[in-house]
Structure formats: C-alpha cells, structure tokens
TrEMBL record:
One GO biological process term: lipid metabolic process
Cited PROSITE patterns: AMP_BINDING
Protein name listed in UniProt: Acetoacetate-CoA ligase
GO molecular function terms listed in the Swiss-Prot or TrEMBL record: acetoacetate-CoA ligase activity; ATP binding
Amino acid sequence: MTDEAIKLWEPSEDRRRATQIAAFMDAVNARFHTEISDYDALWRWSVDNREDFWEQVWDFGGVIGDKGTGEGGARRLADGDAMPGAKFFPDARVNFAENLLRRDGDGDAMVFWGEDKVKRRLSWAEVRASVARLAAALKADGVGPGDRVAAYMPNMPETVVGMLAATSLGAVWSSCSPDFGIQGVLDRFGQIEPTVLIAVEGYYYAGKSLDIRDKVTAVAAQLPTVKRVVVVPYVNEAPDISGIEKATLWADYLGGGPVPDLEFTRMPFNDPLYIMFSSGTTGVPKCIVHGIGGTLLQHLKEHKLQTDVRPGDRAFYFTTCGWMMWNWLVSGLAAEATLLLYDGSPFHPDGNILFDYADAEGMTLFGTSAKYIDALNKGGMDPKSTHDLSTVRTMTSTGSPLVPEGFDYVYEHIKEDIQLASISGGTDIVSCFVLGNPIGPVWRGEIQKRGLGMAVEVWNEAGQAVVGEKGELVCTKAFPCMPIYFWNDPDGAKFRAAYFETWPGVWCHGDYVELTPRGGMVIYGRSDAVLNPGGVRIGTAEIYRQVEQLPEVLESLVIGQDWQGDVRVVLFVRLAEGVTLDDDLVAKIKQRIRTGATPRHVPAKVLAVGDIPRTKSGKIVELAVRNVVHGRPVKNVEALANPEALDEYRDRVELAG
Ligand SMILES: CC(=O)CC(=O)O
C-alpha cells in the first residue's frame, strides 16, 4: 500500500465488550488458561492450536451432534498435517438442518421481499412445518443420504425450506438461480444427477416478470435421473405446469393434514452437504463438494465471531442462490438470526429498496458487493440523509475488492458508526479467508483480518512469507471448510490441480494480495489475471481503483495483450451516459493512473465498450476477454450473465496495431 493508513472506524468499549468474539475470548482464556486479549493473539492461538480452537467453536456455537468417541476421547483432527487429507472430527455425526432449525415458535425465521411485488414472512414454526412436510415427501420419493436435490430457484423462502428438508435427510443440496440458461443448468446439474428438481415457474427482475416454464421443461427433460419436478408458484398463483414432465405443484407435494414429525438424520461430519460450481469460464464448471460439519463450523465462526451475528439479529445478503453467499447467508439461522431474503434487482424501482428493507425490517447485517457500493457512489445516492439505518451494525462487501473510496463512501453516505467488513474467500471454501473483526478498527482500503483458524499468509514467488509486499494468498494448514472432494474426480487429480500445484501441501488460492503491518489484507485481483508488462506484476484492481474514480467512467476491465514479445496493458471502459472517449478523456484516464499508481500501470490502449461481461454472480471476466482479444475460444459462455457483451471485444482494429 502506498497510502498512509487511515483509521475510519473503531468500536466503542461498550460495543467491544458486548461482542460474541469477546465472550469467546473469555471462554478460551478460562478453558485453556491463556491470557488472550486482542484479535491478533486470538488468531495466533487459533492457528497454532487448531484442535482446541475448532472444538471451542463447536461448543461456543452450541453445535447439536455427537463428537464421536474415538480411543482417548473424540478425535478432533486426523492427519492434521496433510493437505489435502486432514479430517476434522472424523468420528463426529451431525445434521445440518437440525443445527439451523434450533428455534421454534412465532418469531420471524425469514422475511422475503421479491422486489416491490411480494412481501411475506414465515415464523420458525411455519418453517419447521414446511420442512417436515417437504422432507416426508422427498423421502417418499426415495430421497435419502447422499442423494442430490437440485433447485432452479430465486432467493426465496421455499429455496431455504428445500435445502433444509433435503439436508434433514442427509441428502446433498445444489442450486442455480433462474437467470441461468438451459445449457448452464445442464452443465451443472447434469454432472451431479439429482433425484428431485425444485423450480419456480417465473421470477421478477427490474420490474418485469419472466416466465421460465420453457426452460424448466427443457432442463427436466434432459436430466434423466430426476424423478420429480416440484414447481413453486411465484409470479402466478396457479401456473399451468402440464408441459413439464413429472411436475407437481409445491402445495400438492407438501400435502395437507397433520404435520409429520421433523426428523434429522445425523451424518458423518465429513459427508457431503453442498455441491457448488466454479464459475466455469475455463471449461465445464467444476463441482466443488463441501462437507456438512466443516461448513457448519466455519459459518458459525464467521457469523458469530467475525460478523457478530447475535440471536434475534436480522441478517441480509444481496445474493442469488447461484452464488455461495446464499449458502453463507442461510447459515445465519444457526446463529439464531432471522433471514431477510431479497430477490430481484437491488435498484428497482428507485435505487432505495435495500435501504427501505433495512428500515422496515430492522436489518442488523447489510451484506452486499463492492460493485453495489460503487454503483451507489456513482449514482450520488445518500442513504444517510434519506434513511434511518439505526439498526444496521455491520455492513459486509464482497465479490471484488472494495476500493478505498468505497470505504469513504460508506462512512460518509451510509452510516458513520458501522463495522464495514470487506470479506473475501469464495466458492472454493464456501466462506472467507479474510474478513471482519468486530473488536478492532477498520482501516481505509483494508480487509480487517485473517479469519480465525485460517493459517493465511502471503508468499512471494520464492515461497517466503512476506508482509507489506504483494504475493499469493496461501493457507498453510488444513481447515474444516476445505472441499471434501470434487464430484467425478475419483483420484482427486482435479482437486489437487486446483489448489495444491504451486506449492504441494499448501492451499494456493489464486488471489494476488498484500498483508499489511496491521494484519489486514489488500486484494489486487486474481493471480491469473495479473498483468505482466515488461515483467512487472500488476494486479488488475490497482488499475480499476484509479480509473473508476473518474465520474466519466462507470466501470472498466483491463487485460494484458501479448504484443511484440512482451505484454501491453489494454483498458476497456464503460462510460457514463453522454460521455465519449475522446483524446482528452484518454489523456485524463492515463494521467489518473500515472499519478495514482505508477507509469508502469498506464495502459497502452484505452477503448470504449458498451458493456463489461460478467458472471451471473457479478464478477467481471478478465480471462474470457483476454481469450477473445487473442482469438482464442471462450469456454462455457453459459456462465456469463451477458455473453453477448464479448462480441465488442473481438477483432478490434485498435488492437491490431
Ligand atoms: C466471500 C467471497 O469471496 C465471495 C465472492 O467474491 O465470491
């Protein structure tokens, strides 16, 4: 970091004392006779004493289950030095849904807003009853431990109920959002062979209703393992589903009469829970399988200790169920929080809806993306003056690095007294490597801390740990939420190739980052997108950070183009309405980059585009653009939200000379 460290926020002493991480620290000190009094000491203890730490998370998180009784007590970690290969709690048995459904009664378990069209709430008792009914129906259809239940669903209560019902039986859950095309769904679910498919008939986006019955029909017809398609009416109360093979409406499937007993099949801790998919722009998506106990422990830790989600809190994340933040959010039930679900455009109808939701429902955690914060900033929104937001204690941001100016915006225009936690990890670990610390300061432009129990370091090319220098984000010790394996990868070759090829026995995440002297992290972009002009490594976010501060530029994407035996930096910009890319603007962009970064960062070419291609979870796809520019094929365009945007990058005359 070239900037001087600026402290933007710090919790008051009262707030610090009231956090769950403070209570956890007290519990550790009492049990292990330690004298830990700050985050860094707790982190050090957690990575040096992984067995004690993760067992303490189990106990503090009130995990319902059986730790198992190996020789000499419950085994907490077997083959702890093997990565991959280590197994946490190898004899334990747990049920995921049992841990999420620990509450009952009239209080809200979930609130749902489908843009401005639908508002609903479900109590804990209602959710338990629906889960019991659906689980009984799934069981009657033969669904049992290890079987896959797949969902082609919006982020709505029935999706959560579906996951809870499936996992109550020990089945494995996988989901895609309804904006996926037929091929995108088949590329994913075709590999994992689900027994039951749950789907909506339509959904809302940006004020429009979209009918997806044709897509569901085509998907169902091409998934031969699917015995039943359960259709959830969303846009229409009673949709005609006669065209969909093996289809039953949700209410008919759940049935009436007395609610069956809710039963939970306890499964081995390291059995599969979720199958997630890599974004897949480099081939058919990889099917990343996450374990039951590892996901549960990690999410309990991240919610309770790193995000301070408390019983009775009201937790929100802007996500679809095609992104891992959906799985992360839903685990908030285990922390006894109410889930505030939202589906649709975050800007419909007037840009305020998420803040309206926060005020109407007493939101305590406002989870969003850096892109959303940037868009609010560019749009001149000032929620601080239009909304109360007094209940919101924490805001989290992910998806791409949050730039320092994004931090400023949150404190100046959203709320002053808020823990702003930029967080990062991803689908590979269904959680975070680096994230929030509720008892410490927020420094401008920095992710607060490395996650507890995560032996994260930054390594230079020689494999040495460095601080204050850019390098690769690695994790040097096994952790419970590593994937248990990849689907259809019997010898583990794909799994090892994905994370352990650079340094055997060390997880290399593929993020180009810097650990600061304060123990914070700055992310400069994906390692495989690093630009290398003249052999100098430049993270793409270093350029975005500069250029996207200009009011003329809404968004940008940068790549390295192979050129005359070297690499030249090519910057694509999406401009604000009415702005054209003339020589003056190009000069202004270059000047901003030169002064804000270095002359080496200045692009050789700056080109205007109408759109920036992105995945369905909103990540810009630098590698796909790099392939298009070099005339190479782009694999699996189905993973993109706007594949047509790639056309503009093909055969650009400006890049031929
Ligand atoms: C936590 C994350 O890292 C989420 C993401 O960006 O995919």
